[in-house]
Amino acid sequence: MSTRIPRRLAAALLLVPLALPLAACGSDESDDEGGGGGGGGGGGGGGDTTLTVLAAASLTDVFEEAGELYEEANPGVTVRFSFAGSQELAAQVTQGVPADVLVTADTETMAGVEGETGEPTVIARNELTIVTPPDNPAGIDALDDLADPAINLVLAAPEVPAGRYGREILDRAGVEARPDSEEPNVRSVLGKVRLGEADAGLVYVTDAASAGDDVLSVPIPEEQNTLAEYPAATLDGAERPDEAAAFVEWLSGDEAQGLLDDAGFLAP
Description:
Belongs to the bacterial solute-binding protein ModA family. This is Molybdate ABC transporter substrate-binding protein. Keywords: Metal-binding, Molybdenum, Signal. By secondary structure, the protein is α/β, with parallel strands linked by helices. It folds into two domains: 49-125 and 229-263, 3-Layer(aba) Sandwich (D-Maltodextrin-Binding Protein, domain 2), CATH 3.40.190; 126-227, D-Maltodextrin-Binding Protein, domain 2, CATH 3.40.190. The chain is built from ten helices and eleven strands. The protein has helices spanning 7-13, 34-40, 60-73, 86-94, 107-111, 161-172, 186-194, 205-211, 241-251, 254-262; strands spanning 23-25, 49-56, 77-84, 101-103, 121-126, 128-132, 153-156, 181-183, 200-204, 216-219, 228-234. Strands 1-3-2-4-11-5 form a six-stranded mixed sheet. It has a five-stranded mixed sheet with strand order 8-7-9-6-10. Strand 2 (49-56), helix 3 and strand 3 (77-84) form a beta-alpha-beta unit. The model is unreliable at 1-46 (pLDDT under 50).
């Protein structure tokens, strides 16, 4: 890219490869639930508003539903999501990609961009689990089984929150496991297991739940597990900072928290 291209244009061009993961959802109906009331003020600035939310891949299903509810409660507001690994989202922020809100799957990644965001708010927590294909061909029953070099193990890459959490869990349990593949986000780990391309993987409990009968979940004992925290923050470069702040506030409200709870996330 030529250095003569204006920074704003260069940042916008970075969004092109992300066109496919972007999900936009809209509705003309209103929702009078209590959680929507907090966001109503944010959508009342006159004219249509589009909020771009960079969100951790593990939030894909629940946030798409949350976006629809938020739009119903805030006519004229469209919420557009870009889902990816938290480390990739942070890179987009530092590169100046236009967006309004950032939600990561760990506080460490959020802290790395603190000069680019408002004060973060933890909106949910999560835990990890082992997933295998439904027939569990490798007979995985516990973390110790992941040390078997004969199994095909897939983990998120070390720089991805789920990858870092997974390695912390394995280290705590004294398990020396060597992954056959390291994926750019937790949904890629889940996808490989669902397709039968791996014998086992470590994903969030909510990812396993979203896959239904396509995977078998092998729980990790609480004393060996870890709690992942999901902070949300407005971005300093947000074009509609008030509306962005209203959405972040709404994520901590009853309606959004109910959706997160139904999806298997733990309370903040």
